[in-house]
Design brief:
heterodimer; A: 344 residues; mainly alpha; two-stranded antiparallel ribbon; B: 166 residues; Four Helix Bundle (Hemerythrin (Met), subunit A); 7 helices; 76% helix
Protein backbone atom coordinates (compact mmCIF):
# COMPACT_ATOMS: atom_id res chain seq x y z
CA UNK A 1 0.00 0.00 0.00
CA UNK A 2 1.35 3.39 -0.96
CA UNK A 3 1.78 6.21 1.49
CA UNK A 4 -0.83 8.31 -0.34
CA UNK A 5 -3.40 5.51 0.02
CA UNK A 6 -2.68 5.20 3.73
CA UNK A 7 -3.13 8.95 4.18
CA UNK A 8 -6.41 8.87 2.25
CA UNK A 9 -7.67 5.95 4.37
CA UNK A 10 -6.62 7.77 7.52
CA UNK A 11 -8.51 10.90 6.49
CA UNK A 12 -11.54 8.76 5.65
CA UNK A 13 -11.42 7.08 9.06
CA UNK A 14 -11.23 10.46 10.79
CA UNK A 15 -14.13 11.82 8.72
CA UNK A 16 -16.34 8.79 9.40
CA UNK A 17 -15.47 8.92 13.09
CA UNK A 18 -16.33 12.62 13.23
CA UNK A 19 -19.57 12.06 11.32
CA UNK A 20 -20.64 9.26 13.67
CA UNK A 21 -19.99 11.46 16.68
CA UNK A 22 -21.79 14.47 15.21
CA UNK A 23 -24.75 12.33 14.11
CA UNK A 24 -24.90 10.77 17.58
CA UNK A 25 -24.74 14.23 19.19
CA UNK A 26 -27.52 15.62 17.09
CA UNK A 27 -29.54 12.43 17.49
CA UNK A 28 -29.86 13.28 21.18
CA UNK A 29 -31.16 16.70 20.17
CA UNK A 30 -33.47 15.21 17.54
CA UNK A 31 -34.73 12.65 20.03
CA UNK A 32 -35.69 15.36 22.52
CA UNK A 33 -37.25 17.59 19.88
CA UNK A 34 -39.24 14.69 18.42
CA UNK A 35 -40.35 13.55 21.86
CA UNK A 36 -41.53 17.08 22.48
CA UNK A 37 -43.37 17.08 19.16
CA UNK A 38 -45.09 13.76 19.87
CA UNK A 39 -46.10 14.95 23.32
CA UNK A 40 -47.19 18.41 22.16
CA UNK A 41 -44.39 20.25 23.98
CA UNK A 42 -41.72 22.70 22.79
CA UNK A 43 -38.58 20.74 23.72
CA UNK A 44 -35.11 22.21 24.32
CA UNK A 45 -35.09 25.77 22.94
CA UNK A 46 -32.74 27.82 25.16
CA UNK A 47 -29.20 27.06 24.06
CA UNK A 48 -28.73 28.89 20.76
CA UNK A 49 -31.44 29.37 18.11
CA UNK A 50 -34.08 26.58 18.40
CA UNK A 51 -31.90 25.02 21.09
CA UNK A 52 -29.43 23.89 18.44
CA UNK A 53 -26.43 24.14 20.83
CA UNK A 54 -28.15 21.87 23.36
CA UNK A 55 -25.94 18.79 22.62
CA UNK A 56 -22.80 20.90 23.19
CA UNK A 57 -24.20 22.17 26.47
CA UNK A 58 -25.08 18.61 27.50
CA UNK A 59 -21.61 17.38 26.59
CA UNK A 60 -19.98 20.19 28.56
CA UNK A 61 -22.17 19.37 31.52
CA UNK A 62 -21.26 15.68 31.33
CA UNK A 63 -17.54 16.48 31.38
CA UNK A 64 -17.82 18.88 34.30
CA UNK A 65 -19.98 16.70 36.55
CA UNK A 66 -18.46 15.02 39.57
CA UNK A 67 -16.85 11.65 38.91
CA UNK A 68 -18.26 9.09 41.32
CA UNK A 69 -16.91 5.55 41.67
CA UNK A 70 -18.84 3.56 44.30
CA UNK A 71 -16.69 2.24 47.17
CA UNK A 72 -17.53 -1.40 46.56
CA UNK A 73 -17.30 -1.26 42.79
CA UNK A 74 -14.35 -2.97 41.16
CA UNK A 75 -12.57 0.16 40.01
CA UNK A 76 -10.84 -0.91 36.81
CA UNK A 77 -13.79 -2.80 35.33
CA UNK A 78 -16.08 0.08 36.28
CA UNK A 79 -14.11 2.23 33.83
CA UNK A 80 -13.65 -0.54 31.24
CA UNK A 81 -17.44 -0.97 30.87
CA UNK A 82 -18.34 2.37 29.26
CA UNK A 83 -15.03 2.48 27.35
CA UNK A 84 -15.82 -0.86 25.75
CA UNK A 85 -19.37 0.25 24.97
CA UNK A 86 -18.21 3.34 23.09
CA UNK A 87 -15.32 1.52 21.39
CA UNK A 88 -17.45 -1.30 19.98
CA UNK A 89 -20.00 1.28 18.84
CA UNK A 90 -17.33 3.16 16.88
CA UNK A 91 -15.54 0.27 15.13
CA UNK A 92 -18.65 -1.01 13.35
CA UNK A 93 -18.51 1.73 10.71
CA UNK A 94 -15.24 0.38 9.25
CA UNK A 95 -16.82 -2.01 6.75
CA UNK A 96 -19.79 0.07 5.60
CA UNK A 97 -19.51 1.31 1.99
CA UNK A 98 -20.57 4.95 2.11
CA UNK A 99 -20.51 5.50 -1.63
CA UNK A 100 -19.15 4.40 -4.96
CA UNK A 101 -15.53 5.05 -5.84
CA UNK A 102 -14.59 8.68 -6.41
CA UNK A 103 -12.15 9.31 -9.27
CA UNK A 104 -10.04 12.45 -8.90
CA UNK A 105 -7.42 12.68 -11.64
CA UNK A 106 -5.46 9.44 -11.48
CA UNK A 107 -6.55 8.69 -7.92
CA UNK A 108 -9.40 6.36 -7.11
CA UNK A 109 -10.82 7.02 -3.66
CA UNK A 110 -12.75 4.15 -2.14
CA UNK A 111 -15.44 5.49 0.19
CA UNK A 112 -15.14 2.45 2.44
CA UNK A 113 -12.47 1.95 5.07
CA UNK A 114 -12.01 -1.80 4.70
CA UNK A 115 -13.55 -4.07 2.10
CA UNK A 116 -13.05 -7.37 3.89
CA UNK A 117 -14.78 -10.37 2.33
CA UNK A 118 -16.53 -11.30 5.57
CA UNK A 119 -18.05 -7.82 6.04
CA UNK A 120 -21.44 -8.93 7.40
CA UNK A 121 -19.86 -11.32 9.85
CA UNK A 122 -17.57 -8.53 11.05
CA UNK A 123 -20.65 -6.43 11.83
CA UNK A 124 -22.05 -9.41 13.70
CA UNK A 125 -18.87 -9.81 15.69
CA UNK A 126 -18.93 -6.16 16.68
CA UNK A 127 -22.59 -6.39 17.67
CA UNK A 128 -21.98 -9.47 19.80
CA UNK A 129 -19.02 -7.76 21.45
CA UNK A 130 -21.16 -4.72 22.26
CA UNK A 131 -22.95 -6.50 25.08
CA UNK A 132 -19.72 -6.83 27.09
CA UNK A 133 -19.64 -3.11 27.77
CA UNK A 134 -23.05 -3.31 29.40
CA UNK A 135 -22.36 -6.59 31.21
CA UNK A 136 -19.00 -5.58 32.63
CA UNK A 137 -20.28 -2.15 33.66
CA UNK A 138 -23.40 -3.61 35.26
CA UNK A 139 -21.46 -6.23 37.17
CA UNK A 140 -18.65 -3.91 38.28
CA UNK A 141 -21.15 -1.44 39.78
CA UNK A 142 -21.86 -3.93 42.57
CA UNK A 143 -25.51 -2.96 42.63
CA UNK A 144 -28.36 -5.43 42.22
CA UNK A 145 -30.29 -3.23 39.81
CA UNK A 146 -27.24 -2.79 37.64
CA UNK A 147 -26.62 -6.53 37.71
CA UNK A 148 -30.23 -7.27 36.72
CA UNK A 149 -29.94 -4.79 33.87
CA UNK A 150 -26.70 -6.40 32.71
CA UNK A 151 -28.19 -9.88 32.83
CA UNK A 152 -31.23 -8.74 30.90
CA UNK A 153 -29.01 -7.12 28.29
CA UNK A 154 -26.98 -10.31 27.88
CA UNK A 155 -29.90 -12.68 27.46
CA UNK A 156 -31.78 -10.29 25.19
CA UNK A 157 -28.74 -9.73 23.03
CA UNK A 158 -28.02 -13.43 22.58
CA UNK A 159 -31.65 -14.31 21.88
CA UNK A 160 -32.09 -11.70 19.19
CA UNK A 161 -28.69 -12.35 17.64
CA UNK A 162 -29.98 -15.77 16.59
CA UNK A 163 -32.96 -14.48 14.63
CA UNK A 164 -30.81 -11.68 13.25
CA UNK A 165 -28.32 -14.24 11.96
CA UNK A 166 -31.07 -16.38 10.47
CA UNK A 167 -32.63 -13.39 8.69
CA UNK A 168 -29.20 -12.59 7.23
CA UNK A 169 -28.80 -16.16 5.95
CA UNK A 170 -31.86 -15.70 3.72
CA UNK A 171 -30.31 -12.46 2.41
CA UNK A 172 -27.04 -14.28 1.73
CA UNK A 173 -28.93 -16.85 -0.34
CA UNK A 174 -30.10 -13.99 -2.55
CA UNK A 175 -26.80 -12.07 -2.76
CA UNK A 176 -24.30 -14.94 -2.64
CA UNK A 177 -21.59 -12.84 -0.99
CA UNK A 178 -20.58 -11.69 2.48
CA UNK A 179 -18.85 -8.51 1.33
CA UNK A 180 -20.86 -5.38 2.01
CA UNK A 181 -19.33 -3.65 -1.03
CA UNK A 182 -20.55 -6.37 -3.38
CA UNK A 183 -23.98 -6.45 -1.75
CA UNK A 184 -24.22 -2.69 -2.28
CA UNK A 185 -23.11 -2.96 -5.92
CA UNK A 186 -25.69 -5.67 -6.64
CA UNK A 187 -28.52 -3.31 -5.67
CA UNK A 188 -27.69 -0.96 -8.55
CA UNK A 189 -30.56 1.34 -9.52
CA UNK A 190 -33.75 0.16 -7.89
CA UNK A 191 -32.87 -3.54 -7.37
CA UNK A 192 -32.99 -3.07 -3.63
CA UNK A 193 -32.87 -6.22 -1.53
CA UNK A 194 -35.93 -5.22 0.46
CA UNK A 195 -37.99 -6.06 -2.64
CA UNK A 196 -36.65 -9.62 -2.57
CA UNK A 197 -36.45 -10.05 1.20
CA UNK A 198 -39.32 -8.09 2.81
CA UNK A 199 -39.80 -10.59 5.65
CA UNK A 200 -36.07 -10.79 6.25
CA UNK A 201 -35.89 -7.01 6.47
CA UNK A 202 -38.69 -6.78 9.03
CA UNK A 203 -37.04 -9.48 11.14
CA UNK A 204 -33.72 -7.67 10.91
CA UNK A 205 -35.35 -4.38 11.86
CA UNK A 206 -36.98 -5.87 14.97
CA UNK A 207 -33.70 -7.49 15.97
CA UNK A 208 -31.88 -4.21 15.43
CA UNK A 209 -34.20 -2.57 17.96
CA UNK A 210 -33.40 -5.31 20.46
CA UNK A 211 -29.65 -5.26 19.79
CA UNK A 212 -29.38 -1.50 20.27
CA UNK A 213 -31.51 -1.69 23.44
CA UNK A 214 -33.99 0.77 22.03
CA UNK A 215 -37.59 1.02 23.12
CA UNK A 216 -39.82 -1.09 23.01
CA UNK A 217 -36.97 -3.47 23.94
CA UNK A 218 -35.06 -1.20 26.34
CA UNK A 219 -35.57 -3.59 29.24
CA UNK A 220 -31.92 -3.40 30.43
CA UNK A 221 -32.46 0.23 31.47
CA UNK A 222 -36.14 -0.04 32.32
CA UNK A 223 -36.48 2.78 34.86
CA UNK A 224 -39.86 1.66 36.22
CA UNK A 225 -38.37 -1.61 37.45
CA UNK A 226 -34.60 -1.19 37.71
CA UNK A 227 -33.98 2.48 38.68
CA UNK A 228 -31.56 3.13 35.80
CA UNK A 229 -30.67 -0.42 34.81
CA UNK A 230 -27.03 -1.13 34.07
CA UNK A 231 -25.99 2.51 34.37
CA UNK A 232 -27.63 3.19 37.74
CA UNK A 233 -24.27 3.82 39.45
CA UNK A 234 -22.71 5.79 36.62
CA UNK A 235 -22.23 9.53 36.60
CA UNK A 236 -20.46 12.17 34.58
CA UNK A 237 -18.90 11.28 31.21
CA UNK A 238 -18.97 7.52 31.90
CA UNK A 239 -22.76 7.74 31.86
CA UNK A 240 -22.40 9.99 28.83
CA UNK A 241 -20.44 7.26 27.03
CA UNK A 242 -23.19 4.71 27.62
CA UNK A 243 -25.87 7.06 26.33
CA UNK A 244 -23.68 8.12 23.43
CA UNK A 245 -22.87 4.51 22.50
CA UNK A 246 -26.61 3.85 22.15
CA UNK A 247 -26.96 6.67 19.62
CA UNK A 248 -23.87 5.62 17.66
CA UNK A 249 -25.20 2.05 17.61
CA UNK A 250 -28.47 3.38 16.25
CA UNK A 251 -26.59 5.24 13.50
CA UNK A 252 -24.48 2.21 12.59
CA UNK A 253 -27.39 -0.22 12.60
CA UNK A 254 -29.37 2.18 10.39
CA UNK A 255 -26.40 2.30 8.03
CA UNK A 256 -26.21 -1.50 8.00
CA UNK A 257 -29.92 -1.81 7.26
CA UNK A 258 -29.65 0.72 4.44
CA UNK A 259 -26.64 -1.12 3.01
CA UNK A 260 -28.14 -4.58 3.25
CA UNK A 261 -31.75 -3.93 2.33
CA UNK A 262 -32.44 -0.39 1.14
CA UNK A 263 -29.99 -0.11 -1.73
CA UNK A 264 -27.06 1.52 0.11
CA UNK A 265 -25.97 4.51 -2.04
CA UNK A 266 -28.00 3.40 -5.07
CA UNK A 267 -31.01 5.28 -6.35
CA UNK A 268 -33.31 4.83 -9.37
CA UNK A 269 -32.05 6.29 -12.66
CA UNK A 270 -28.52 6.65 -11.24
CA UNK A 271 -26.98 5.91 -14.65
CA UNK A 272 -28.99 8.70 -16.29
CA UNK A 273 -27.93 11.08 -13.53
CA UNK A 274 -24.30 10.01 -13.85
CA UNK A 275 -24.43 10.59 -17.61
CA UNK A 276 -25.86 14.10 -17.28
CA UNK A 277 -23.97 15.60 -14.31
CA UNK A 278 -20.74 13.60 -14.42
CA UNK A 279 -19.68 10.55 -12.41
CA UNK A 280 -18.28 12.26 -9.31
CA UNK A 281 -21.34 14.43 -8.75
CA UNK A 282 -23.51 11.30 -9.07
CA UNK A 283 -21.34 9.53 -6.49
CA UNK A 284 -21.71 12.43 -4.07
CA UNK A 285 -25.47 12.47 -4.68
CA UNK A 286 -25.43 8.75 -3.80
CA UNK A 287 -23.63 9.45 -0.52
CA UNK A 288 -26.12 12.20 0.31
CA UNK A 289 -29.04 9.90 -0.45
CA UNK A 290 -27.49 7.16 1.68
CA UNK A 291 -27.31 9.55 4.61
CA UNK A 292 -30.90 10.65 3.93
CA UNK A 293 -32.00 7.01 4.17
CA UNK A 294 -29.98 6.55 7.37
CA UNK A 295 -31.62 9.60 8.92
CA UNK A 296 -35.05 8.24 7.96
CA UNK A 297 -34.22 5.07 9.87
CA UNK A 298 -32.98 7.01 12.88
CA UNK A 299 -36.25 8.94 12.78
CA UNK A 300 -38.09 5.62 12.68
CA UNK A 301 -36.19 4.41 15.77
CA UNK A 302 -37.30 7.55 17.61
CA UNK A 303 -40.82 7.46 16.28
CA UNK A 304 -41.25 3.92 17.63
CA UNK A 305 -39.72 4.86 20.96
CA UNK A 306 -42.25 7.61 21.61
CA UNK A 307 -45.20 5.63 20.27
CA UNK A 308 -45.02 2.07 21.55
CA UNK A 309 -44.90 1.15 25.25
CA UNK A 310 -42.18 -1.11 26.60
CA UNK A 311 -42.55 -4.90 26.43
CA UNK A 312 -42.66 -7.08 29.52
CA UNK A 313 -39.57 -9.23 29.84
CA UNK A 314 -41.30 -12.57 29.24
CA UNK A 315 -43.09 -11.09 26.22
CA UNK A 316 -39.72 -10.02 24.85
CA UNK A 317 -38.32 -13.53 25.19
CA UNK A 318 -41.48 -15.10 23.75
CA UNK A 319 -41.33 -12.82 20.73
CA UNK A 320 -37.66 -13.58 20.15
CA UNK A 321 -37.71 -17.34 20.56
CA UNK A 322 -41.22 -18.39 19.61
CA UNK A 323 -42.11 -15.94 16.83
CA UNK A 324 -39.02 -14.47 15.21
CA UNK A 325 -36.84 -17.60 15.04
CA UNK A 326 -39.52 -19.85 13.43
CA UNK A 327 -40.40 -17.00 11.04
CA UNK A 328 -36.75 -16.56 10.12
CA UNK A 329 -36.32 -20.29 9.49
CA UNK A 330 -39.48 -20.35 7.34
CA UNK A 331 -38.10 -17.38 5.44
CA UNK A 332 -34.86 -19.27 4.73
CA UNK A 333 -36.77 -22.33 3.51
CA UNK A 334 -39.07 -20.30 1.23
CA UNK A 335 -36.14 -18.27 -0.15
CA UNK A 336 -34.20 -21.47 -0.81
CA UNK A 337 -37.12 -23.09 -2.65
CA UNK A 338 -37.79 -20.00 -4.77
CA UNK A 339 -34.11 -19.65 -5.73
CA UNK A 340 -33.93 -23.32 -6.68
CA UNK A 341 -37.09 -23.03 -8.82
CA UNK A 342 -35.86 -19.90 -10.60
CA UNK A 343 -32.40 -21.30 -11.33
CA UNK A 344 -33.73 -24.54 -12.75
CA UNK B 1 7.03 -14.51 12.69
CA UNK B 2 7.66 -11.95 15.42
CA UNK B 3 3.97 -11.09 15.48
CA UNK B 4 3.22 -14.76 15.96
CA UNK B 5 5.55 -15.06 18.94
CA UNK B 6 4.13 -11.94 20.50
CA UNK B 7 0.52 -13.11 20.09
CA UNK B 8 1.44 -16.62 21.25
CA UNK B 9 3.03 -15.10 24.34
CA UNK B 10 -0.16 -13.14 24.99
CA UNK B 11 -2.28 -16.30 24.58
CA UNK B 12 -0.21 -18.18 27.13
CA UNK B 13 -0.05 -15.20 29.46
CA UNK B 14 -3.82 -14.66 29.47
CA UNK B 15 -4.56 -18.38 29.85
CA UNK B 16 -2.32 -18.47 32.93
CA UNK B 17 -4.23 -15.48 34.28
CA UNK B 18 -7.50 -17.39 33.66
CA UNK B 19 -6.53 -20.13 36.10
CA UNK B 20 -4.71 -17.91 38.59
CA UNK B 21 -7.39 -15.21 38.96
CA UNK B 22 -9.14 -15.35 42.32
CA UNK B 23 -12.42 -13.94 41.11
CA UNK B 24 -14.34 -16.20 38.68
CA UNK B 25 -15.68 -13.22 36.72
CA UNK B 26 -12.12 -11.95 36.20
CA UNK B 27 -11.24 -15.48 35.06
CA UNK B 28 -13.90 -15.31 32.36
CA UNK B 29 -12.74 -11.87 31.28
CA UNK B 30 -9.19 -13.21 30.84
CA UNK B 31 -10.65 -16.15 28.92
CA UNK B 32 -12.31 -13.63 26.57
CA UNK B 33 -8.92 -12.01 25.98
CA UNK B 34 -7.39 -15.45 25.36
CA UNK B 35 -10.01 -16.19 22.72
CA UNK B 36 -9.35 -12.79 21.19
CA UNK B 37 -5.69 -13.71 20.75
CA UNK B 38 -6.85 -16.95 19.07
CA UNK B 39 -8.83 -14.83 16.62
CA UNK B 40 -5.64 -12.91 15.82
CA UNK B 41 -3.83 -16.23 15.26
CA UNK B 42 -6.46 -17.23 12.71
CA UNK B 43 -6.12 -13.89 10.95
CA UNK B 44 -2.35 -14.38 10.79
CA UNK B 45 -3.02 -17.73 9.12
CA UNK B 46 -5.29 -15.95 6.58
CA UNK B 47 -8.26 -17.99 7.83
CA UNK B 48 -10.72 -15.10 7.84
CA UNK B 49 -13.87 -17.15 8.19
CA UNK B 50 -12.55 -19.20 11.10
CA UNK B 51 -11.31 -16.01 12.76
CA UNK B 52 -14.63 -14.22 12.56
CA UNK B 53 -16.62 -17.32 13.56
CA UNK B 54 -14.35 -17.86 16.54
CA UNK B 55 -14.97 -14.22 17.37
CA UNK B 56 -18.77 -14.41 17.06
CA UNK B 57 -19.40 -17.86 18.52
CA UNK B 58 -16.84 -18.09 21.30
CA UNK B 59 -16.30 -14.48 22.31
CA UNK B 60 -19.74 -13.20 21.39
CA UNK B 61 -22.02 -16.01 22.48
CA UNK B 62 -20.50 -18.78 24.58
CA UNK B 63 -18.46 -16.56 26.87
CA UNK B 64 -21.39 -14.16 27.26
CA UNK B 65 -23.36 -17.15 28.53
CA UNK B 66 -20.50 -18.13 30.86
CA UNK B 67 -20.40 -14.61 32.23
CA UNK B 68 -24.17 -14.60 32.50
CA UNK B 69 -24.28 -17.78 34.59
CA UNK B 70 -21.43 -16.61 36.80
CA UNK B 71 -23.17 -13.30 37.44
CA UNK B 72 -26.38 -15.14 38.33
CA UNK B 73 -24.55 -17.41 40.77
CA UNK B 74 -22.82 -14.42 42.37
CA UNK B 75 -19.78 -16.36 43.56
CA UNK B 76 -17.48 -14.69 46.03
CA UNK B 77 -15.05 -15.64 48.74
CA UNK B 78 -17.68 -15.79 51.50
CA UNK B 79 -19.90 -18.28 49.72
CA UNK B 80 -17.03 -20.53 48.66
CA UNK B 81 -17.03 -23.88 50.43
CA UNK B 82 -13.68 -24.90 51.96
CA UNK B 83 -12.39 -27.90 50.00
CA UNK B 84 -11.44 -31.09 51.83
CA UNK B 85 -7.82 -32.21 51.69
CA UNK B 86 -8.85 -35.40 49.86
CA UNK B 87 -10.10 -33.28 46.94
CA UNK B 88 -6.89 -31.24 47.00
CA UNK B 89 -4.69 -34.37 46.92
CA UNK B 90 -6.79 -35.87 44.11
CA UNK B 91 -6.47 -32.63 42.15
CA UNK B 92 -2.69 -32.56 42.55
CA UNK B 93 -2.34 -36.18 41.42
CA UNK B 94 -4.71 -35.63 38.49
CA UNK B 95 -2.88 -32.48 37.40
CA UNK B 96 0.50 -34.21 37.71
CA UNK B 97 -0.64 -37.12 35.55
CA UNK B 98 -1.95 -34.69 32.94
CA UNK B 99 1.36 -32.81 32.93
CA UNK B 100 3.32 -36.05 32.42
CA UNK B 101 1.02 -37.07 29.56
CA UNK B 102 1.45 -33.69 27.89
CA UNK B 103 5.23 -33.77 28.24
CA UNK B 104 5.37 -37.32 26.89
CA UNK B 105 3.14 -36.34 23.97
CA UNK B 106 5.28 -33.31 23.14
CA UNK B 107 8.50 -35.36 23.38
CA UNK B 108 7.08 -38.07 21.13
CA UNK B 109 6.12 -35.45 18.54
CA UNK B 110 8.57 -35.53 15.67
CA UNK B 111 9.61 -31.99 14.82
CA UNK B 112 8.05 -31.44 11.42
CA UNK B 113 8.92 -29.04 8.65
CA UNK B 114 6.70 -26.13 7.87
CA UNK B 115 3.54 -27.25 6.20
CA UNK B 116 3.20 -25.22 3.05
CA UNK B 117 -0.38 -24.86 1.92
CA UNK B 118 -0.94 -25.37 -1.78
CA UNK B 119 -3.61 -22.70 -1.71
CA UNK B 120 -3.06 -19.95 0.85
CA UNK B 121 -6.57 -18.63 0.26
CA UNK B 122 -8.13 -21.81 1.61
CA UNK B 123 -9.40 -19.95 4.67
CA UNK B 124 -11.58 -17.55 2.68
CA UNK B 125 -15.30 -18.20 2.88
CA UNK B 126 -15.80 -19.28 -0.72
CA UNK B 127 -12.97 -21.85 -0.77
CA UNK B 128 -13.81 -23.14 2.68
CA UNK B 129 -17.46 -23.63 1.72
CA UNK B 130 -16.55 -25.44 -1.49
CA UNK B 131 -14.17 -27.75 0.36
CA UNK B 132 -16.67 -28.45 3.11
CA UNK B 133 -19.57 -29.19 0.78
CA UNK B 134 -17.60 -31.16 -1.82
CA UNK B 135 -14.98 -33.19 -0.01
CA UNK B 136 -16.32 -33.33 3.53
CA UNK B 137 -20.08 -33.28 3.00
CA UNK B 138 -20.86 -36.39 5.04
CA UNK B 139 -18.90 -35.48 8.21
CA UNK B 140 -20.30 -31.97 7.95
CA UNK B 141 -23.90 -33.19 7.83
CA UNK B 142 -23.30 -35.77 10.57
CA UNK B 143 -21.90 -33.11 12.89
CA UNK B 144 -24.97 -30.97 12.20
CA UNK B 145 -27.17 -33.89 13.31
CA UNK B 146 -25.05 -34.13 16.45
CA UNK B 147 -25.62 -30.45 17.18
CA UNK B 148 -29.34 -30.80 16.53
CA UNK B 149 -29.62 -33.72 18.97
CA UNK B 150 -27.70 -31.71 21.58
CA UNK B 151 -30.16 -28.85 21.07
CA UNK B 152 -33.19 -31.12 21.44
CA UNK B 153 -31.64 -32.61 24.57
CA UNK B 154 -31.10 -29.17 26.08
CA UNK B 155 -34.71 -28.19 25.39
CA UNK B 156 -35.89 -31.46 26.91
CA UNK B 157 -33.84 -30.82 30.05
CA UNK B 158 -35.15 -27.27 30.34
CA UNK B 159 -38.86 -28.09 29.97
CA UNK B 160 -40.71 -28.97 33.12
CA UNK B 161 -41.92 -32.51 33.58
CA UNK B 162 -45.75 -32.28 33.35
CA UNK B 163 -46.15 -35.18 35.80
CA UNK B 164 -43.88 -33.59 38.38
CA UNK B 165 -45.72 -30.26 38.37
CA UNK B 166 -49.18 -31.83 38.48
Amino acid sequence: MELADIIVKFILVVIIFAISLVVAMYSTYAERKLAAFFQDRVGPNRAGPWGILQPLADGGKMFLKEEIIPTNASGFLFIVGPSLAIMTACIGSAVIPWGQKLVIGAHVIDLQVADINVGILYIFGVVSLGVYGIMIGGWASNNKYSLLGAIRAASQNISYEISMGLSIIALLLVTGTLSLREIAEQQHGWHWNVLYQPVGFILFLICAFAETNRSPFDLPECETELVGGYHTEYSSMKLGFYLFAEYINMFISSAVMVTLYWGAYNYPFMDTVAASVGPNAAVILGVVLMFAKIFLFIFFFMWVRWTIPRFRYDQLMDLGWKTLIPLAIANIVVTGIVITLINR
Amino acid sequence: MNTFYFIAFLSVFFSILVISAKNPVHSILYLILTFFTFTIHYILLNAQFLAIVNFIVYMGAILVLFLYTLMLMNLNKDSEQPKSSLVKIAAVIGGGCFLITIIAAVKALAPSDYVVLKDTNLGLVKNLGKTLFNEYLLPFEVSSVLLLSAMVGAVLLATKDPKATA
